[in-house]
Amino acid sequence: YSLNLSFLSVLFSAVDSRSAALYSKEEDEYFTMNSDIDGDTENQVELEEKTRLINQVLELQHTLEDLSARVDAVKEENLKLKSENQVLGQYIENLMSASSVFQTTDTKSKRK
């Protein structure tokens, strides 16, 4: 299952931009002072979050593909059943027209 890399790039850019917008100037200064200490940890957290998002996107993509395949199968089954229904309907109609039970005759109405 191919996943468009530019889509992922845009997705991560949007996540990064949104995250960056949430920090105030003071938080940025604090972050700069502690970047040496927390840099590796924060990079690890960011990497884990990106990995989680990629896995979630892939899972959703697989689910969508499965649902699409199921819809196609149901449509095919529906067409098959409609066709069989038409054949059975015609068969019943032919039986009814050939049977004297379902025939309306003038002789019955004349007897009354």
TrEMBL record:
Residues 50-84 form a coiled coil. Residues 1-20 form the signal peptide. Gene3D superfamilies: 1.20.5.170. The keyword Cytoplasm applies. Keywords: Coiled coil, Cytoplasm, Golgi apparatus, Membrane, Signal. It is found in: Cytoplasm, Cytosol; Golgi apparatus membrane; Golgi apparatus, trans-Golgi network. It comes from the Eukaryota. It is a peripheral membrane protein. InterPro entries: SCOC. GO terms for cellular component: cytosol; Golgi membrane; trans-Golgi network. Positive regulator of amino acid starvation-induced autophagy. Belongs to the SCOC family. This is SCOCA protein. The gene is Scoca.
